[in-house]
Amino acid sequence: MSAPVPMPRWADLVLLPAVCLLVALLVAAAVVAMVGQSPTEVISALVQGAFGTLRGLSYTLYYATTFIFTGLAVAVAFHGGLFNIGGEGQAVMGGLGTGLAALFLSHSLPVWAMLPVMLAAGVLFGLMWAAVPAYLQAYRGSHVVITTIMFNFIASSVLVYLLVNHLRPKGTMAIESVTFADSAKLPGMHQALAWIGVEWPASPLNLSLVLALLACVGVYLFMWRSRAGYRLRAVGSSPSAAEYAGINSRHQTLIAMSISGALAGMVGMNEIAGVSGKLILEFVSGAGFTGIAVALMGRNHPVGIIFASILFGALFQGGAEVAFDVPGFSRDMVVMLQGFIVLFSGAMTYVIAPWVAAALRFLPGARHG
Amino acid sequence: MDEASLGAMLASTLRLATPLILCALAGLFSERSGVVDIGLEGKMLFAAFAAGAAGAAYGSTPIALVAAMAVSVALSWMHGFACVSYRGDQVVSGVAINIIAVGLTVVLGIAWFHQGGQTPPVDTSVRIQPLFPEAGTWLSGIPLVGRVLGEGLLVHSALVYFAYALVPAVWWLVFRTRFGLRLRAVGENPQMVDAAGVSVKRLRYTALTLNGMLCGLAGSYLVLAQSANFSANMTAGRGFMALAALIFGRWHPVGALWACLLFGFLDAAAIRMQGVPMPLVGEVPVQFIQALPYVLTVVLLAGFIGKAVAPQALGKPYLKER
Questions:
Q1: N or C: which end of chain B has fewer CB within 10 A?
Q2: Average model confidence (pLDDT) for chain A?
Q3: Which of A87, A284, A154, A163 is nearest to B241 (CA)?
Q4: What pLDDT shows up at residue A1?
Q5: What is the tens place of the pLDDT at every residue in A150-202?
Q6: A330–B97 C-beta distance less than 8 A
Q7: Which residues of B touch A328 (CB under 8 A)?
Q8: What is the pLDDT of residue A56?
């Protein structure tokens, strides 16, 4: 995904993504202005809602946690040369695994055993849901983009079927399972901070954030500090060269997608174990696709993904607040902006890059970066 | 099942398959020219919104149709600008179109109509009516098949018949004309087309224009024929199902037609079979039937029932050598 136009490394890594983001923001601001809202008013309400209070900040980080998982999932697949559109379905399956483990075991297992089991179940379910398309791409020649799209729909059907027909308690109308026993509840951040004597407002933010940050470190170490990661990136940048070097690209496809699915599967720890405490229907609601925007903006690097996730978390949280404050505003504006970011940071980088390079040529001293 | 319900079943299969056919044919032009089109869903959604908004605002069917097609063609061109003029990633661009469509249609809907993202229902005179309103009774004199055929085949609007008539037309265009030959060639081997002195870009843009027009029709069908107004995310995955049908039909118009009919039938059956026990298998869960098109497509792609081979150059940006 490197720019075709030669430009200094710092410009490629920082300036170009920033310009792409700026273009997306400007287009979104133009739409906001067109529908009769004031972009500055919306932005200030958004920032205030997302970062202005500890509670707002907690919500921002809670949304960001899910996006880190799905963003990392997309990024790992990208490095293996694959486009995983199936983060949505893998997250659904991961949450299903987490939820099933909790439903069947939470009454018999203590919390220290229950949470790892839930995590493992989520990871396993997400992994399997990505490994099948990966196998089909590697050994049967069907394209992973198409199969993962199909698997998204199949996953949502599986979840609806299980909830409606089997997991829903008899005689209830709401499509959700019974509440898990307490041992299956991942502690909230306010509880965890209370243990060490810090007062923090109650919010959905929970210890999954720590898990997400650990996942970032893990992905970094794997991708850039291990041989396995090197092999994976080698296949991603040039399958034929990697093949010459004795790397089996089919295995790498399986590995990349499995890790990707496992990361997406961890979404269940945040949404199911951390917040809802029961298996529900709409716990992913588009986060898999937000992950694509996050990975594109974060340039597929864990550090970039953390920042991009916080940005999107702020947009979702701030968007929810603005919807209360500014009449006529809806969270769909955030979805729209997300689309513009995918468009300009992803599809149109090659359109924007020559302009950035041309602008740089006018800056003396930047030429030898 | 009696004759009346068989007729109704046939009718709803044909109706539900119509937007899938229009959309799958749209995808066929794009993908045969070598441009992946994940954005079918978004273009159809945007077209549906445009048809609903223009239909409600101007009260005219032609204006609604033109607005839908114009919006959808514009999105196709944007896709082309990013991925044909420049070498942007076709899948990413398609995903972007889908996400933008979900968000922007609701934003504009709220701003213009103040109904929580819906458009007001279009006037009955704007809606596309059945071509022959009394046709259902014409064949009722014929025993056994009369009612089934009459109520199943003759009760539809012009847009439905048009969609089915498009299938042989597209087949002829793609497989029997010079343009079609070039279109298929550019999807298989753009270097060769370029060497023969034919513009790859122009061919792909032409394909994308046709693609946009058909997506526009598919979207307007949802608003002008199926329901009476636009509502948020009303395409509900139909664009992806059309993409699945296109692949299931092996990138061939007639194959895609059969796939769309099968998926339309499954859709119609899912509604009817809810809670009805079937012979041998008992009650089939409705989610299973809904997921079946996707399962079948995956199985086909995996080569377990025949083989689906995509156009060779699909998804690869073409860089003209200088």
A1: C
A2: 90
A3: A154
A4: 41
A5: 999 999 999 999 998 888 888 888 889 999 988 889 999 999 999 988 888 98
A6: no
A7: 110-111
A8: 92
Identify all chain B residues contacting A165, using CB atoms and an 8 Å cutoff: 285
Q: Please check whether residue A259 lies inside any domain of the structure.
A: yes
- Encoded tokens for A45: 């309400």
Residues in A closer than 8 angstroms to B102, CB to CB, are 332, 335, 339
Q: Mapping DSSP to helix (H, G, I), strand (E, B) and coil, where does residue B157 land?
A: strand
At A122 the pLDDT is: 97
B96, B101, B106 ranked by CB distance to A347: nearest: B96
Note whether residue A85 is domain-resident.
yes
**Cβ within 8 Å, pair A147-B291:** no
A3: confidence class by pLDDT, cuts 50, 70, 90:
very low
Query: Between residues A142 and A253, which one has the greater pLDDT?
Result: A253
pLDDT at A186: 92
| Cα A162 to the center of its chain, rounded Å | 25
Ordered structural domains, chain B, with CATH: 3-301 (1.10.3470)
Burial class (CB in 10 A: 0-12, 13-18, 19+), B124: exposed
B301 vs A: CB within 8 A: yes
B98 in contact with chain A, both atoms CB, cutoff 8 A: yes
Q: Is B292 on the interface with A (CB under 8 A)?
A: no
- Interface touch B298/A4, C-beta < 8 Å: no
CATH of the domain at A101: 1.10.3470
Band of pLDDT at residue A369, cut at 50, 70 and 90: very low
Inter-residue contact A81 to A237 (CB < 8 Å): yes
pLDDT per residue over A255-293, tens digit each? 999 999 999 999 999 999 999 999 999 899 889 999 999
* B254 interfaces chain A, CB cutoff of 8 Å: no
Is the pLDDT at A5 greater than 70, yes or no?
no
Local confidence band at A40 (pLDDT 50, 70, 90 cut-offs)? confident
Do B302 and A143 lie within an 8 Å CB cutoff? no
Q: Does B259 touch chain A (CB under 8 A)?
A: no
Q: Which residue has the tokens 């229009």?
A: B22
| Highest mean pLDDT: which range of A1-5, A225-229, A361-365 | A225-229
- Contact list, B74 vs chain A (CB under 8 Å): none
Per the structure, how many domains does chain A have? 1
CA atoms within 13 A on the CB side of A183: 17
| pTM attached to this predicted model | 0.90
Q: Which residues pair with B157 in a beta bridge?
A: B130
Q: How many CB pairs under 8 A join A and B?
A: 153
Q: Which amino acid belongs to residue B213?
A: M
CA separation for the pair A88, A73 (Å, rounded): 10
As given in the structure block, the two tokens for residue B34 are 């070598």
Q: Which residues of chain B have pLDDT under 70?
A: 1, 135-136, 140, 144, 275, 280-281, 305-308, 321-322
Q: CA-based angle B83:B86:B92, to the nearest 5?
A: 35
CB of A160 within 8 A of CB of B287? yes
Cβ atoms within 10 Å of A360's Cβ, excluding its own:
18
Cβ atoms of B301 and A142 within 8 Å: the answer is yes
CA distance A177 to A168: 5
Considering only alpha carbons, which residue of chain A is nearest residue B115?
Answer: A328
Question: Do residue B83 and residue A347 have CB atoms under 8 angstroms apart?
Answer: yes
Nearest CA in chain A to B236: A153
Chain A contacts of B237, Cβ < 8 Å? 153
List chain A residues with CB under 8 Å of B249: none
**Is A45 inside any structural domain?**
no
Contact B95 A292 (CB under 8 A): yes
Say which of B88, B106, B294 has its CB closest to residue A154: B294
Q: What does pLDDT average to over chain B?
A: 88
